[in-house]
Each structure stands twice: as C-alpha cells, then as structure tokens.
Amino acid sequence: MGNKNERNILENITFYSGIVILIILLIYLGFGIVKNDNKPPELTVSISEDPNSAGTKYKIEVENVGEKTAEAAIINFELYDNGKVAGKAELQIGYVPQHSKEIGFIVFPGQQTPADSIVINSMSYIQP
Amino acid sequence: MGKSKVHQTAKEYSRGIIGGLLFSLPLLYTMEVWWTGFIAFPEKLMGCIVFTFLILLGYNKHVGVREDQSTADLFRESVEEIGLAFVVTFLFLLLINKIGLTMSFREIAGKVILESMIVAIGISVGTEQLGQEDKVGNEKKKKKEGSTTQMLVLALCGAVLVSSSVAPTEEILIIAIASTPVHLLLMVLLSLLLCTMILGYIDFKNTSHEEADLKRTWNLVVISYLSALLVSFIMLWFFDRIEGYGPGIIVAQVIVLGVPAALGASAGRLIIGR
Fold first, then answer.
1. Which parts of the chain span the membrane according to its record (chain A) (predicted)?
2. Residue B148 in domain
3. Which residues of chain A have pLDDT under 70?
4. Which of B76, B131, B192, B228 has the highest count of CB atoms within 10 angstroms of its CB?
C-alpha cells in the first residue's frame, strides 16, 4: 500500500499490528493443532430462579466445557411441586461452541408459588 | 509532506475497507459462516489464513499498480491488508452482536478468522480498483498484462469473491442432491459457455492490438473453469461439505458451486483486474 523506504507512521502501525495479530493467531492455532484435544462436547447446566417474574421463571445457563462444539442441544426440564410433576419444558439451542456459554429462560406461567425443585429430565446434542 | 503521505495512506486504507465490506457483507450476515468459524478445526483455520495470504501475495504481485515492488514490499502489503481485515471484521461482528463477552476466545477467533479472509481479499481489490490512478509515473507503474500466471491469479480471486457469498449456504447441498446427471452436465456446459462468451467477447472488443485468437480464448476458458472448480472444492472443504459425503455428492456440489465461481473467474477478473 505504500512505497518502499518511505513508510509513514500509519503504514508502520498497520503493518506491525497485522504482524502481531497474525503471530498471535498462528501460535494459538498451532497450539490447538499440537494439543489435538478430541474431547467431545460436554454441557453443564446451571439453573437459577428469577424472583421478579409473575409465574415461575428460571434462568438457564448452558456451558460447553468440552473441546468440540455441541449442535442441536435439547434439554428437557421437569418442575416438581410436593413430589409431583407440576410442569414440563424444553430448551433447544442451535449451537454451543466449546468453552462458551448460552443463556436461556424457561417459564411455567401457571405456577404462581415456588415449586420444590426443577430437574433436568434428559439432554441430547450432536457433535457436528 | 509527512502529513500528506499519511493522508494518502488513510485514503488508500479507506478505499480498501470499503472494498472489503462491499465484497464480504453477504458473508458477514450469513449464520453458516459464523457457525463454521467455531466448528472448524485449527488446521482448517490455519489453512484458511495461508490460502488467503497466498491469494493476496499473488494479487498484489500481478495486479498491484507498482511494477518495482520487491518480495518484502509484497509481503508487507499483504500483512497490512490482512491486519486491516482482522480489525474491520472484529469491529463489524461486534456491531452486529455476533461476538460478545460470554464467548470463548476460540469462538471469537474462529468467526473473525473465517470472515476476515474474504474481507482481506476485498480490501486488496478495493485498494487497487476503487481509486483513481496516480497521475505521475503512471506508465512506469503499469504492469505487463496477459501472462498465464496473472490470468490464473485473477481467475482465483474472482472465483473466490463471487462464489463466497453462496458457498456456505445449505442450498448448494440441496441443489446438488436434487440434480440429475443431465442437470449437472448442463451446468458444466453453461459454465463453459459463460466463460467462453465473457472471455471471448470482452477480449475481442477491448484488445485492439491483438488479433482475435481462438487458442488464447480457449486457454483462458480452461484456466477460468479449472480455477472455478478448484475454488469451489476448497470453499466446500472450508464449510464442511466434503467430509462425510459420498464422491457423487461432492462432485455434484463442486459443479453446482462451479457455476457462480466460473462467472467470477471469467467476469470477475475483468472487474478486479487492470
């Protein structure tokens, strides 16, 4: 983009920034290649209740602690009240990349009082 | 004088950024590309960077305005373009909320690397093509035109730029599955016909100092179509459309994607080349 021997400050900043970014990315990718970690996707789910909602609303955080992306994740929840199933819900997430977190919410509109517990009934996902 | 040089460089960069966005906006808005970015293995992302860097070196060497550039200058210019592309892509993905704080470095890096490769080629093309030519020393700077290597580089760049907007989409696979051998044969013939018409017609009209040469036209058609098929295969590999599919479907996909790629390799080179 400029003529040799007459580099101005803008060209120098751009060039050296480009070199630094390239080196960082290549080292990072090289490390990933050498590490060659084939650990499959592994989802962990944390649930917290939202006290401000009219019904029973839960915040769901799904984190992939594996080394591969999880695709088409489906998580089924069951709400228990006095030992009986008071509601069911399903959360679908297109992709959960490795070491990333997706946040979703499930709401049981008819449930006005706090239930005993919410449990994960089943969880499925595929490795793309 | 220093200020005016910085000003000139800023104008060049601005032209490049506009070119980069012009060619890559469809990809920046395509979810399949975001997904491929974080699904792709590190080997693939590294291959993506190396392939783009080679394309940039080739384009700057054969199409760049200065004939007296050394290899170090070409390297430096390509690094500047790729660096600009990383920054522009990062900021744009941040703007459309496709990268954020809850994402891992791996996810952000994957998305930025994959998207920024087309932005980098767009920046290179934009810098060369969107501005006015220098008034001083123009004749000295003009490159020799028409070498086979130059044609190959231009065909590859054109094929990448035009086919990249459709390559990541599921539709290529759907069309390939639905196509019968007759459809595929017609697509090959159409691609060759398009290349022949574009290269033959344009060259006959614009090349006043050369005789209409059927052999040369056929050489260009072959170079363009082979470049288109090669780029189609590489693109499909980048976007995970090769592994896990049978040879028949792979060939069909290459032919389907080869239609826009052939258009880019033949017509695109007339737009992005000097």
1. 13-34
2. no
3. 1-5, 51-55, 111-115
4. B228
B129 and B177, same domain (yes or no): no
* B158 inside domain: no
Q: Domain A43-126 sits in which CATH superfamily?
A: Immunoglobulins (2.60.40.10)
Q: Tell me if B107 and A30 make a contact (CB, 8 A cut-off).
A: no
The single-letter DSSP state of residue A55 is S
Are B57 and B132 in the same domain? yes
Q: What single-letter DSSP state applies at residue A72?
A: E
Residues B24 and B133 in one domain: yes
**In a domain? residue B18:** yes
Give the distance from residue A33's alpha carbon to the nearest chain B alpha carbon, in angstroms: 6
CA B165 to CA A80: how far, in whole Å? Answer: 49
Write the DSSP string, chain B: -HHHHHHHHHHHHHHHHHHHHHHHHHHHT-HHHHHHHHHS-HHHHHHHHHHHHHHHHHHHHHTSS-TT--HHHHHHHHHHHHHHHHHHHHHHHHHTTSS-TTS-HHHHHHHHHHHHHHHHHHHHHHHHHSSPPPSTTHHHHPPP---HHHHHHHHHHHHHHHHTTTTTSTHHHHHHHH--HHHHHHHHHHHHHHHHHHHHHHHHHH-TTS---HHHHHHHHHHHHHHHHHHHHHHHHHTT-STTS-HHHHHHHHHHHHHHHHHIIIIIHHHH--
Tell me the shortest Cα–Cα distance from A96 to chain B, in angstroms: 9
Residue B146 lies in a domain: no
pLDDT in tens, B81-99: 999 999 999 999 999 999 9
**Residue B188 shares a structural domain with residue B104:** no
- Residues B75, B170 within the same domain: no
Domain that holds residue B86: 2-141
Amino acid at the residue B240 = D
Work out the minimum CA distance from A105 to partner chain B, whole angstroms.
16
- Are A22 and B83 in contact (CB < 8 Å)? yes
| pTM greater than 0.90 | no
State the Cα–Cα distance between residues A122 and A115, nearest whole angstrom.
Answer: 20
Choosing among A28, A29, A98, which should be mutated to test the B contact, i.e. which has the most B CBs within 10 A? A29
ipTM, 2 dp: 0.78
Total structural domains within chain B? 2
